[in-house]
Amino acid sequence: MEPVRTDVLTVTPWLAPIVWEGTFDPLVIDEAFRSHNLTIATTVFAVGKYTRFLRDFLESAEKHFMVGLDVHYYVFTDLPGDVPSNVTLGVGRLLSIVRVPKFDRWQEISLRRMELIQTAIEDHIHREAHYIF
């Protein structure tokens, strides 16, 4: 896999690949990951009025995100009842709701987001997925 672009980094200092548009053949990348039977965790925050965007997000992700791989969506929300339950997920795709406290200020949820993800990773995600986005 030789990168075709030299204007961007294609690997981190810890040797994780960075895939930019036009850096690698997507068919080669897809096949390399598919053959490892990986599970990808995807975290998304939908708090307050932002739950209304979840349906479109999930439907788009089902069409375009890590197609052919097992994906576990973790929806962090203060309104679990507003998470759409009728979005069709593909084979090997799961959705879990992680209830988070309601915060009065958007700044607080922004500051607490990484803490909430860290707790979820430590509690269970690390046993359920190989990569987290």
Structural features:
133 residues, alpha/beta, Spore Coat Polysaccharide Biosynthesis Protein SpsA, Chain A, 2 domains, 4-stranded parallel beta sheet, 4 strands, 32% helix, globular
- The gross shape turns out to be globular
SSE order: HEHEEHE
Domains (count): 2
Per CATH, the architecture of the largest domain is Alpha-Beta Complex
Count of helices? 3
How confident is the prediction overall: mean pLDDT?
88
Commentary on this structure:
With 133 residues, the protein is an alpha/beta fold. It has two domains: 36 residues, no CATH class; 96 residues, Spore Coat Polysaccharide Biosynthesis Protein SpsA, Chain A. It has a four-stranded parallel β-sheet, covered by helices on one side. Strand 1, helix 2 and strand 2 form a beta-alpha-beta unit. The longest helix is centred in the C-terminal third of the chain and has 23 residues. The relative contact order is 0.16.
What's this, in brief?
The protein is an alpha/beta fold and 133 residues long. 32% of the residues lie in helices and 18% in strands. The chain folds into 2 domains: 1-36, no CATH class; 37-132, Spore Coat Polysaccharide Biosynthesis Protein SpsA, Chain A (Alpha-Beta Complex).
